[in-house]
Amino acid sequence: MLAVLWQLWETMNSMQSVFILSTRKMEFFWTHSLKEIEQQIDTLRQFKHFEYELSDEFLPWFHTLPIYLELDGFRVVHACWDDNHIGWLKSNNIYSIFENKKEISRKILSDYDNRKGVVFWVFEEILKGKEFELGPGESFIDKDGESRNMARIKWFQPNTYRRFKKDVFLGIDRENGEQIVDEFILDKLPKYESDIPVFF
User: Fold this and answer.
1) Domain limits, the chain
2) pLDDT digit string, tens, across residues 121-132
3) DSSP annotation string for 98-147
4) Whole-angstrom distance, CA of residue 158 vs CA of residue 151
5) Facing residues of 104 across strands?
6) 17 closest CA partner among 169, 148, 149, 128
7) Count of CB atoms within 10 A of residue 71's CB?
C-alpha cells in the first residue's frame, strides 16, 4: 500500500506540469511563458526518447488518476485539502469514458482552461494550494528567483503554531518570515480542522 501511495504522490507531484497537456495530443491547453515551460521541462525531459510513451501511455493513464483519495483513516491530496472543493468533486461528475477508461473529461479540462468559475478554483487550489496576497509593497523571492507578492498558505498548520509569516506561508524568505502575522489576517486564512491525517 505504501508503494502505491508513494507512486501516486510522485505522479501527483508532477500533475501541475502535465495536467494542462491535452489528454491525447502533445499540445498545451493555454499559452506558456518561459517560466511555465521551465517548470515543466523536467517531466518532459524524462520522455525525451520515449515520446510515444508520453502521448500513448502516460498521459492517458495520468488522466485516470483520482484528484484526491479519502480512505479508511487517512486522506491524500496533491497540494491542499479543502472540504468545500472535495465536496464539489464528490457531487459533480468530472470524468468521461474514453476507450473503456474513466478519465477526466475534456469539458472539465476546457473549463479549467478558461481560468474562471468553480472548476478552475477547485482544481487550482487542490493541485497548487491556496494563496494569499501579501500587503502593499510586500514581496519575496521564491525558489526559482521570481519576485512574488502572493504566498501559498500552510493550510495544514494549526492556529496554535501560526504566529510568524514563516509559520503561515510556504517558501517565504527568512527576512519576511520573521514578521508577525496580524490576528485579523490569521482569522481569514484557511485551515485544516479534521483529525483525519492528510498526506499531500
Assistant:
1) 2-128, 131-191
2) 999 999 999 999
3) ETTEEEE-HHHHHHHHTT-HHHHHHHHHHHH--EEEPPTT--EE-TTS-E
4) 18
5) 95
6) 128
7) 10
Q: What is the CA radius of gyration of the chain?
A: 18
Considering only CA atoms, which of 13, 101, 31 is closest in space to residue 63? 101
Predicted structure pTM score: 0.75
Chain segment 138-153, per-residue pLDDT in tens: 999 888 888 999 999 9
For residue 187 the three cell numbers come to 482569522
| Short-list 133, 112, 116, 132, CA closest to 15 | 112
Interior/surface letters 33-69, b for 16+ CB within 10 angstroms, e for the rest: eeeeeeebeebbeebeeeeeebbeebbeebbeeebbe
**In which residue are the cell numbers 519576485 written?**
147
